[in-house]
Design brief:
This protein has helices at residues 2-28, 177-180, and strands at residues 30-34, 48-53, 58-60, 67-70, 79-84, 89-97, 102-106, 109-112, 115-116, 118-124, 128-134, 139-145, 154-158, 163-167, 183-184, 188-200, 206-207. The chain is mainly beta.
């Protein structure tokens, strides 16, 4: 039996090494993450598989999320992926507040460091409005419910060191820092800037060709 196992390893060691290296790569360098909810619409839609750059902020030990060396800190406007201890889920949200910021929201209008953000209308229908939000230099799309929600406002808060305020672009339909609290720096595992592939859940999981390699 030992001889057979040795022969089996000898015959397949290249394949085994490839699998091991692939696992290390996905664990510590880059991976993709499925987005199953609408919390980041209109930027990210259900069925998108987004590319996660795990070297964007830290060099981590493979298989264990432990930072060996910090490369950078998340910036306002970054789309981050983090393992939330509070929600016990891996989440995808946008950084809205960084350490040192003072932030408030009134009727889906953000105020950062006493500055009211600028908004422009993109699309309006009976239920929601898509707008362009200028996040102090980073322009991106958001979606707000015309009727508002309990998430539409929150009082002024200060962001402490090593914490971030992260929100979904679908502002009235996102369990983000307004629900789970601020995101610790240690929970952030990477940044997303691109869709790899997208499958349409409502159309037999057929690929959405227009979203292949779509920039976020």
């Amino acid at each position: 039996m030992k001889v057979k196992m040795a022969d089996l390893y000898s015959e397949n060691k290249s394949f085994i090494l490839f699998i091991l290296l692939m696992c290390v790569f996905r664990s510590a360098v880059a991976d993709w993450n499925e987005v199953p909810t609408s919390s980041m619409q209109p930027t990210i839609v259900e069925g998108d598989r987004i590319l996660v750059n795990k070297l964007a902020y830290d060099v981590n030990t493979p298989f264990i999320h432990h930072s060996l060396y910090k490369l950078a800190d998340p910036l306002r406007g970054d789309i981050i992926i983090f393992d939330s201890e509070v929600s016990d889920k891996r989440l995808v949200k946008r950084v809205v507040g960084v350490p040192g910021d003072t932030i408030a929201m009134i009727d889906n209008v953000l105020y950062i460091n006493d500055q009211r953000l600028a908004y422009g209308n993109e699309r309006i229908n009976e239920r929601f409005s898509d707008k362009t939000e200028n996040l102090l230099g980073v322009q991106h799309s958001i979606r707000v419910a015309n009727a508002g929600s309990a998430l539409s406002s929150f009082p002024s808060m200060n962001i402490p060191t090593d914490y971030y305020l992260a929100m979904g672009d679908n502002r009235d339909n996102s369990a983000d820092s307004r629900v789970i609290g601020l995101v610790p720096r240690t929970e952030i595992i990477g940044r997303a800037k691109q869709v790899v592939i997208s499958l349409n859940y409502d159309n037999y999981y057929l690929p959405r060709s227009k979203r292949f390699l779509h920039t976020l």
